[in-house]
Amino acid sequence: MIRPDPGGGNRGIRNRSWRQRESDPGTAPVFSLRGAGVRFGATWALEGVDLEVGAGERVALVGPSGAGKTTLLSLLNGSRRPTAGRVAVLGRDLATVRPSELRHLQRRVGTVHQQHHLVGPLRVVHNVNAGRLGEWSLLEAVRSLISPTDVAAAEAALARVGIAEKLYERTDTLSGGQQQRVALARVLVQRPVAILGDEPISSLDPARAEEVMQLLAGLAGDAGRALVVSLHAVEHALRHCNRLVGLRQGRLVFDAAAAEVTPVMVEELYRIDQSTDEHGEGAA
Amino acid sequence: MLAFAGSLVHAGLGSQGTLNPAGWPQLRRFLAAAAHPATSPEFIRLTLDATLTTLAYAVLGTAVAVGIGVVGGVAISESWWRRPPSGRPRRTGRAGEVGPWLASRLVVSLPRGVHEAVWGLALVTILGLDPLVGVLAIGVPYGAVTAKVYAELLDETPTGAFEALRTAGVGRLRALTYTLAPLAFPDMLSYAFYRFECAIRGAAILGIIGAGGLGFQLALSFQSLRYDEMWTLIYALMAVCGLADWWSTALRRRSALPPRTIAGLGDVGDSEQRLTGATRSALGRDRRLHASAAVVVALVVVSLWHLGVDVSTLWAPRAQRLASEMAASSFPPDLGVEELARLVVLSLQTLEMSVIAAVVASLAGTAMAFVIAGGVEAEQRAGVLQRVGAGAARGLLLVCRAVPPPVGALLLLFVLLPGPLPGALALAVYNAGILGRLMAEVVENLDPAPARALRSQGASAPQAFCYAILPRTLPRFAAFGLYRWEVAIRETVVVGLVGAGGLGRLLAQQLAAFDYRGATATLAALVVLTVAVDMVSSSVRRALR
Fold it and tell me: Do the domain assignments include residue A97?
């Protein structure tokens, strides 16, 4: 297995011990995984993953279908609990925090999905405002459904992704690319410390994919946010991210700065052999 | 629309909202009897026999309905009347095609406007107390609805293959069997099962007006205030209804049968799930369908034997004589000024009852559906309390739709003074039982991903519910409610028969007095009202989509 030294600007953080980092939330990495694994039935979708992501890093998760990229992202936003190992966000172990703090941490992590997961019959402004739910009370949330509150913030977010004029349209009347932008705006109003992208460009044509990747990288860069995005296309990863994490059959194969990733590493990652096909299919 | 409904509810309550506290002990005694139903061997035997009778009516009624539906559905589908595509543009030839199509549509909308109980009463006069009355009373109106739905299904099916064959000179019946029919078959089968569920409830109602079976026994036991016996019969009805529901849902969900035609209303489930369902059970489906087909055949044979149906009654000279006599004495309808004024007043009352029933049923059904589906978003996190609540709600809904509305209305008369309100509320309870189940199915089939996405970014469960579940379900629930309103306006006749008011009560009086000319006028008013409600409802439903 190829396992080059990750390098980059975060070597200092990486050398400290787990205990130290957890007790010091100020400098703690955004995400920190220790021996994390997820098992579905008898198969491990993810196994023994050690990973740290610091503020301002742009990390691409690459690897063949079923490598465990989506599962890894679901660990990072707390929607799935690891079967083994530990997952910490901003230095706090998700398994031990109280539910209220878990929600608080989840609020700091925004996720963009390939299928957007927007609510079609709602107007765009409500779908964007849904990003505020973590900070709003139930009463505020319901009131906003009746008469949208804080429209200015929603409009600014939409303007940032280039579709400000769609504010009051029904979301399911928008095109796929426009819906992707609504999903991005929803993440923006969340004001997260990290943005996760689950195959955000795999259903877009090359030109739109490039636009969305530029947007994502830009949004992350705006406020020193961390970006973790799973991608099928390695060229996008190399162009827009400064670090690539290769996953294969649920295991971390390499973790390297973009500049250090060689064609051989990529070829090895996507190599097709009989066992890959058998194990790979079920784990996605 | 809501204000309109609200004002009508208010009018209904304002004029009739007087309670009858003296009846409370009776109602309590009835409810208490739920814990100890009659279990003597001979009563159990009677109950089983009655159950079989009700089931037999439902099975044969559905069989007739599906027969009418298939023939009629093809005959009134647009595809059938469309000429084979030739070189000329299609629009110019429309007039000649639309004429017969429109006429055939009218033919099916008439029997649909009248409730099966009225059909039963009319047929009894002609055929006498014959089992065919029950079968036809269900089969004819259901057949008309089925034909309409089947026609819509055929017309919604992509016609490319059909037209290709037609262009190639294939006759239209053969072209239809090879192209449209196989494509529309799963939907058509699914709808037939939904009709069967309805037919069981319809058969119970017919029993009350004399067809025998569970409804009849229920009315008898009620007259002698034998509450324990009533509960035995209600439990039997619940068991049959529950089994039919389970059978039809199992076929719809586990096999590749799409859930979309549950009420001829468009999608209930998500297309994505439908696909996975299809792939998941490509093997299991055939076996399940074959087993179901065998059960259906067995049921039909047993039903024919149990009821002793003799089709020749239809052609007997006596029936023909009575039919012509009835036709002669029914025309022309009584339409004097006085009668018209009375019809208008009673029509308004009927409308009021149907609106109260539909609104109350929709609200109650929605609440119950969310209680039942409480675990959708919470998934494995659903607590014990939620599960117990969901189970209790399911049971309650089953009771609600198992008690026929006339019996419900009479029960409500314990605590309410006579008038339209008990009838309307009985209809509301009954329809809430049906709506709650349909709505729960919608929520359960909802794609959970958007709600999960909101949860993963820190939204609380109630917030995710408001933003991801409500907006996707309420429009469909409104459509269901409107559809149920159409049904409720027909059903007002049934509670009217036991004296709840409206046109149904007048009709019962007229039929009892052999005033057929008056009855024809009342029926005409009922059909007009039904058609009007259908039109309003379907235009609002279209706007909702």
Answer: yes
